[in-house]
Structures are given as structure tokens and as C-alpha cells.
Specification:
- The complex is a heterodimer.
- Chain A is mainly alpha-helical.
- Chain A is built from 14 helices and four strands.
- In chain A, helix 5 (89-111) runs antiparallel to helix 6 (114-143) and helix 6 packs across helix 7 (163-187).
- By secondary structure, chain B is mainly alpha-helical.
- Chain B has one domain (25-250, 319-460).
- Chain B is 69% helix and 7% strand.
- Chain B is built from 14 helices and eight strands.
- In chain B, the strands form four sheets. Chain B has a two-stranded antiparallel sheet with strand order 1-2. In chain B, strands 3-6 form a two-stranded antiparallel sheet. In chain B, strands 4-5 form a two-stranded antiparallel ribbon.
- In chain B, helix 1 packs antiparallel against helix 2 (49-83), helix 6 (182-211) runs antiparallel to helix 7 (215-250) and helix 7 packs antiparallel against helix 10.
- The radius of gyration of chain B is 24 Å and the shape is globular.
- The interface between A and B is large, with 67 and 79 residues.
Chain lengths: 339, 461
């Protein structure tokens, strides 16, 4: 049996891999969910067609990172998977069902007549909106802690529902809107781009507001988080995170103003990255916050070792051909659907 | 009605419903991807536009089916955790890696290259496009490999040990992946997927032939489908037979339930029909071929086959559903064989593309692959009961501690959403089929050869 545990800290490596998969998911499906949310507000049918064409070749691949996150969690941290999912049963299933609607409406709208198309456009919008909101609530429900006894979830059906998770839900909607609109800004021109400019600016304000709110809320409700962030000397380098957040906001804003097409999108990705890192700093070393650490939840070293081989060999290949696919469909989006 | 059921049973119903819905789409796209690769290869080889037109027509249908497979598949990857937490925790060390490899080797490959397959015609060269189609086709097969391996391990677990808490640990990966039933079940499933696709393609093309709509394209598709319909049912029955013998050795209680055999017999008979009655411990109204079962399973008509009554009652899988679903599957196989034989006869009479009765028969056969696959899966999965990991972890002990309300609400939501999505999906697939392929170049200068133009059902709808 292969076992790398004497040489490397497998749970830590796997923690990083899962975090990476979740981040990739948020980056990638984040922008296409965001496009879905702002979709009905676009100024014209032509704009909408361009927006759809800009994400059509990617959405299956983007969503696969969600399977990677779920499957990876199951494989690398089965205990965490078996505690988190029952705890968040309702929001997880609602999110999945919303994604079902959104995913199929994508395919159906291409094939539908004008009336059907209207209907699927609505399904696309509400599916995206609802899935995003639920993802935000899942995040909030997870971060605020899960009630565990022994090796299983011990809370009640609606533990996840709180003012905090409601706020993270709304916050994530704002975040995906920013991602989606900066994607549209990068991939379109003319009227669509001008419109996306406005959306970026509004949503940026909301995103900064919610990031600020979370940053205050978390440390003041969890003393452990407070000491992590505000004790000497960690504060000196952790404070670089809010500084960089402000820098991102500046670049998004100036990128939009000076019409540097790609800058807002990539600055937004970096903003998300910073938010994600901030979150990880707060919940470390737990995988089920305040209950199970990621080392406790780890799968057998033989299992983690076997999968590590796969990840090391295959993930670079996946990233390469994902990148290739983005390269093939580079440039500004056209309204026509080729197939 | 739902109040009467306990949360575990509701979870089982939900899992069964969600997975049965999901399997329809991969089962269809596995075969379709390979067939599209073949069409594109033929187009590159011969440069005849008809192949590309057939490709472009069916790739749209592929996209709809594939999209529905993706979204219902995402649901699957969370179902283990939401409803089967204990199972996930205990079997995660063994099954997790298999599913992770499925994601890594198959899902990303399929999803990424599907984009190029659908939207990349003007962006990449024809060879690269062909490569993308092939990669998608390989992806579907890799996916089948891993998921069948994981599922087979639950049927015939091997290469593991169990700690005192009941957590499974891997001891030999090769034995886990290639567990005793895996090779048989993998071959059986892939053949089933190819057959399913062949009958769908064949049925829709037969419809086009009957309506004299894009006959040129329909002939190509129908011809391909008939080659599969002639060759695979027989191979499939050999694979199914081998799988049955494997079940006889590794899951004798399942086999006894499939065959409606309650009493252990030397020279057991083969039940063609009957109604298994668990209370009485016998199969009523039996129609039996004497010694048939022993002969089929061992080659010796007097060999002993163990009946359900020799297993403790709490080890019995529910016999009636398995008995009937197994017979439905075999019935489908017989219908497919009849189709194959009929096609051979017509081929030699040179009326394969003209015989209306046969084309009508093929239209009726369109959904048969799905019927066969779902009834086959019911047989094997219900046959695994009362265990989730055969002989090691009972289904009763594997579920999450969910409340009745949670599971009944989620089950109802799944039923509502999937019904809407499924009906819409079928509607759009049918519409695409009815529309027929688009000709890329005007090849015909003689109008419609005097044929009356048939209205598209798609326009009428």
C-alpha cells in the first residue's frame, strides 16, 4: 500500500487541495452564476444573447468543480462530509435543485421558441440567484459553527438559518454580481459593456460593505477569531489582507473608468481570493468549525496517498485544458450560437 | 401517505428516484458520444457532408441529454453525504478515492471538451475538433469505469479491513477496484448503454424513414443502429449470463430472489413466471423449466442451488420486485434480439430501409433500452438489500439522522423539479428530432423528387 504519511502532512496537503477546488468553483461558477443574476436586467435581447454565448462553452466545466469539491471532501475528509451535509441538508438540496433548473434552462433556451425562451430566461435568472443565495447561506451556516456530538451532526433542522447566514447569502449574491458583471465587461463591447460598467460600480459598493460587515461580525462574536486576528505580532501581516482588499477595489474602479477590459475581472478574482484567505484564517484549524479539525476528519493515509498521486498528475492536465478551452473562446463574445 | 414511512425508507426512495433519473442520461450519452465520434471520423475520411449533417443534428440532442446528466450528477455527489452520512463516514476511505478518480479522469474531460465539441467548429481545426469528440467519448467510458467499480465494490467488497467502529480501511487497491463482480458489471453496463443509444437512434431514424423526412441522413443513422442491434444483444446476453453466474457465487441470496427460488434444490428449475410470496415462502403460479436453473448456472442439471429459505429471514432481499424487474430486463433483451434477427432477414431481402412494419416496430422499441437499464439496476440494487455494503453494513445503519419532515419535503421537491425538467427535456429532444438535420450544402437541384413535404411535428406542437 502506498502511504506518504511519513514524509508529508497529508491532511494539510488535502486541506489545501479542497480549499483550492472550492476556490476554483467560486471563481468559475461564480462568474457564470453572476451573469445569470444580472441577466434579465441587461438593456437588450442582443446583450443577453452575447452574455449567454460568453459563458455557454464553460458552464459544464465550471460546475464540475462543485462535484470536485463535494467528491473531494467525501474522499479526503469523509467525517467532515458526513457531518456538514446533514447539518446543511435543506440549503444544500435547495442549492442543488436551483442549479438543476439553471443548468437545463441554459440548454433549453437555445432550443426553445420565443415564448419558451422567455420562460427559460426566468428560470435561468431565478435559478442562478437562488443557488447563489443558498451557497452564501451554506457558507454562513458552516462558518458560524455546527453542533456535533461524537461523530455526527447533533443539531436541529434549521440551525443554519440565522441573521448571519442570511447576511452571507446576500453578500455572496453581491459578490457573484460583481464577478459576473466584470466578466461581461471583459467579454463584450458597446452597449453591453457600458451597461456592465454601471453594474460593476454598484455591486462593488455592496461587496465592500458586506466584506466589512463580515470582518467585524466574525471577530466580535467569536473570541477565538478575535485573538487570531488582533494579537501581536500576527496582526502586522494579517492586516495586509484588508489593505490589499482596498487596493483591489481601487483597481476594479479605475479599470472600469479607463476601460482596461481585463483589469476589473482579475482584480475581482483577487478580491475573492483575499476574502477566501481571510475566511480560512478565521476557521483554521477546523474543517467543521468549532467542532472537528481537518486532521481529525482526514481519511486513511492510504486513501489520501492514492488520490494525491491522481491529483498531482491529473489536476495540472485539467488546468491546462481548461485554460486551453478559455483560450479557444477568447476575445469578445458574439451573439450567434454556433451549434 | 408519506407519514407512514420512516426517514430511512424515504431516503432510499429519494436516492432511488434521483439515481434512476440520472442514469437515463449517461446511459444515453455514453453510446451517443462514441457514435458521434464515429460519424465525425467518417466525415473526415470520406468528406461526405451527410456525416457532418448527421453529427450536427445529433450533437444538439447530445447537448440537452448531457446537460441534464451533469445537473442530476451534481446532485448525486452530495446525496451520499446528505442522506447517507454513516455510510459516507464508514466507507469513505475506500469509495471516496474511486469517485475522486471519476471526477479527475472523466468529468473534467467531458465537460471541458464538450464546449469545443458544441461551439468550437469555427474556432479549432477539424482534426482538433474530432479529438475533442473522442475525448468526450473516452470521458463517458472512464466515468462508467469508476462508478461501476465503486458500485460493484458495494456488491462484492474486497481488499479492505474493518476497524472495531465499523470503518472500512483499504488494504489492496487493485482488489478494491477490480473486485469480483466489477469486470462483469462494467461490460454489461457499457453494452447496455450502447444498445440503449442504438435503439433511440434507430427508433428516431425509423420515424424519419416512415415520414420520408431527410431520408439520406436517416439511412446512415438507421444503418448504424441496426448494426448494433444485430450484433450486441447476443454479446449482451453472454455478458448478462456471466454476471448471473458471478452473482450465484458471490451473492447467492440475491440470485435466489431473482429466480424466485425459495427451497434449496438439486436440479433447480428455471422460473419463467410466477408470483413470489415471501409469507408462504414459495413462488405461486410457477411456470418452470425443470432443472433449468442448475443447468444454466453450473452446466450440471442436477447441481444444488440454494433457496431463500436457507438464509436467515433478516438476510432476504425483497424478492418480488427483484423477480419482476429481472424478468422485465430479460424481456427487453428478447425484444432486442428479435429486432436484430428481423433486421438480418430484411437485410438479405434488401428491404431493411423500406419495410414499413419493421420501421414501426423500431419506433416502438425506442425507449426499450431505458426500460432494460432501469429494471436491471433495480434488480441489482434492490438485490443488494438489506445491505448497503454487502454483508458488512446494513442500509438501516447507514443513513443520516434526518427528521421525517426534512426527507419528505426534499423528496417531494425532487419529484416536482425532476418531473418538470424531465418533461421539458423530452419535449425539446423530440422537437430537435422532428426538425431533422440541416443540409449544409444544396446537393439536390431536383426539388423534392415529387415527394410531398411532410409537416414537421415540431411545427405542429
Amino acid at each position: 500500500m502506498i502511504d506518504f504519511s511519513p514524509y508529508i502532512n497529508l491532511p494539510l496537503v488535502w486541506g489545501v487541495i479542497i480549499a483550492f477546488a472550492v476556490m476554483m468553483y467560486v471563481f468559475l461558477d461564480g462568474f457564470d452564476l453572476g451573469v445569470g443574476i444580472i441577466f434579465p436586467f441587461a438593456p437588450s435581447e442582443d446583450c443577453r444573447d452575447k452574455m449567454i454565448s460568453s459563458i455557454a462553452p464553460f458552464w459544464d466545466g465550471n460546475e464540475t468543480w462543485l462535484v470536485m469539491g463535494g467528491g473531494g471532501l467525501f474522499a479526503a475528509f469523509p467525517l467532515a462530509y458526513s457531518v456538514i451535509l446533514p447539518a446543511l441538508y435543506i440549503p444544500v438540496l435547495l442549492m442543488l435543485l436551483a442549479l438543476v433548473f439553471r443548468g437545463v434552462s441554459f440548454e433549453f433556451r437555445f432550443k426553445a421558441g420565443p415564448k419558451g425562451r422567455k420562460m427559460w430566461d426566468l428560470a435561468f435568472h431565478f435559478g442562478s440567484l437562488f443557488a447563489t443565495f443558498m451557497q452564501g447561506m451554506i457558507l454562513g451556516g458552516l462558518v458560524q459553527g455546527i453542533n456535533v456530538s461524537g461523530k455526527s451532526f447533533a443539531g436541529s433542522d434549521f440551525d443554519w438559518l440565522s441573521a448571519y447566514s442570511f447576511m452571507t447569502g446576500i453578500g455572496l449574491v453581491a459578490g457573484y454580481v460583481l464577478l459576473g458583471s466584470s466578466w461581461v465587461f471583459m467579454k463584450t463591447e458597446g452597449a453591453t459593456q457600458r451597461w456592465s460598467k454601471k453594474v460593476i460600480r454598484y455591486s462593488l459598493i455592496y461587496v465592500m460593505f458586506f466584506m466589512g460587515l463580515v470582518s467585524i461580525w466574525m471577530p466580535y462574536t467569536e473570541p477565538e477569531v478575535f485573538t487570531r486576528w488582533f494579537s501581536w505580532p500576527t496582526i502586522t501581516y494579517l492586516m495586509s489582507i484588508p489593505v490589499m482588499v482596498i487596493a483591489c477595489a481601487y483597481f476594479i474602479n479605475s479599470g472600469v473608468k479607463e476601460m482596461r477590459d481585463k483589469e476589473p475581472f482579475f482584480a475581482t478574482l483577487f478580491l475573492f481570493f483575499l476574502g477566501f484567505v481571510g475566511l480560512l484564517v478565521s476557521i483554521w484549524p477546523y474543517i467543521v468549525p468549532r467542532a472537528i479539525t481537518f486532521a481529525e476528519a482526514a481519511a486513511a493515509p492510504q486513501s489520501q496517498s492514492l488520490m494525491l498521486i491522481g491529483v498531482v498528475i491529473i489536476v495540472p492536465v485539467i488546468l491546462a485544458y481548461t485554460g486551453y478551452s478559455f483560450y479557444v473562446f477568447r476575445g469578445k463574445s458574439k451573439a450567434e450560437n454556433i451549434y | 401517505m408519506l407519514e407512514a414511512l420512516d426517514p430511512v425508507l424515504l431516503s432510499r426512495i429519494q436516492f432511488g428516484f434521483v439515481v434512476a433519473f440520472h442514469i437515463i442520461f449517461p446511459a444515453f450519452t455514453i453510446g451517443l458520444a462514441s457514435w458521434l465520434a464515429l460519424m465525425e471520423y467518417m466525415w473526415l475520411r470520406t468528406n461526405k457532408p451527410v456525416y457532418k449533417e448527421v453529427y450536427l443534428h445529433w450533437v444538439k440532442i447530445f447537448a440537452v441529454a448531457f446537460g441534464m446528466g451533469v445537473v442530476s450528477g451534481v446532485v448525486m455527489s452530495y446525496q451520499f453525504g446528505t442522506n447517507w452520512a454513516v455510510f459516507s463516514h464508514k466507507a469513505g476511505n475506500v469509495l471516496g478515492p474511486l469517485l475522486a478518480y471519476e471526477v479527475l479522469t472523466a468529468f473534467f474531460l467531458e465537460a471541458s471538451f464538450l464546449g469545443i465539441m458544441l461551439f468550437g467548429w469555427n474556432k479549432v481545426g477539424p482534426r482538433l475538433h474530432f479529438l475533442s469528440t473522442c475525448l468526450v467519448a473516452f470521458g463517458t467510458l472512464f466515468s462508467a469505469f469508476w462508478i461501476l467499480s465503486a458500485n460493484s465494490w458495494m456488491q462484492t467488497p474486497a481488499g479492505f479491513m474493518v476497524d472495531p467502529e465499523g470503518v472500512f480501511y483499504p488494504t489492496n487497491w487493485f482488489e478494491i477496484v477490480f473486485n469480483p463482480s466489477f469486470p462483469y458489471r462494467f461490460v454489461h453496463m457499457v453494452l447496455a448503454a450502447y444498445l440503449t443509444t442504438a435503439f433511440v437512434v434507430g427508433g428516431f431514424s425509423a420515424w424519419a424513414l416512415l415520414k420520408k423526412q431527410s431520408v439520406k441522413h436517416a439511412r446512415v443513422a438507421f444503418g448504424c443502429a441496426m448494426i448494433i442491434a444485430v450484433s450486441l444483444p447476443f454479446l449482451q446476453s453472454i455478458a448478462g449470463h456471466a454476471s448471473g453466474i458471478n452473482t450465484y457465487h458471490h451473492q447467492p441470496a440475491k440470485l435466489a430472489a431473482m429466480e424466485g427460488l425459495f427451497e434449496t434444490e438439486k436440479g433447480a428449475g428455471l422460473h419463467l413466471f410466477g408470483i413470489p410470496n415471501e409469507k408462504l415462502g414459495k413462488t405461486e403460479y410457477p411456470v418452470v423449466i425443470p432443472d433449468g436453473l442448475s443447468l444454466i448456472l453450473t452446466g450440471d442439471p442436477k447441481a444444488e442451488v440454494k433457496g431463500l429459505n436457507d438464509f436467515p429471514r433478516e438476510e432476504w432481499p425483497p424478492s418480488a420486485p427483484i423477480f419482476f424487474s429481472f424478468r422485465i430486463m430479460v424481456g427487453v433483451a428478447v425484444l432486442m434480439m428479435i429486432t436484430g434477427v428481423w433486421a438480418i432477414v430484411l437485410h438479405f431481402k434488401k428491404t431493411l430501409f423500406e419495410n414499413k412494419l419493421f420501421h414501426r416496430w423500431c419506433v416502438l422499441m425506442t425507449p426499450m433500452g431505458f426500460v432494460g437499464i432501469i429494471s436491471g439496476w433495480i434488480t441489482t440494487e434492490v438485490g443488494r438489500q438489506p445491505y448497503v455494503v454487502y454483508n458488512h453494513l446494513r442500509t438501516m445503519d447507514a443513513a443520516s439522522a434526518l427528521t421525517h419532515t426534512q426527507v419528505s419535503i426534499s423528496l417531494l421537491m425532487f419529484i416536482v423539479v425532476y418531473t418538470i425538467v424531465f418533461s421539458a427535456g423530452i419535449y425539446y429532444i423530440l422537437r430537435l428530432v422532428m426538425k431533422g438535420p440541416k443540409e449544409t450544402e444544396p446537393t439536390d437541384t431536383y426539388g423534392t423528387h415529387g415527394l410531398k413535404k411532410v409537416p414537421n411535428l415540431g411545427d405542429v406542437l
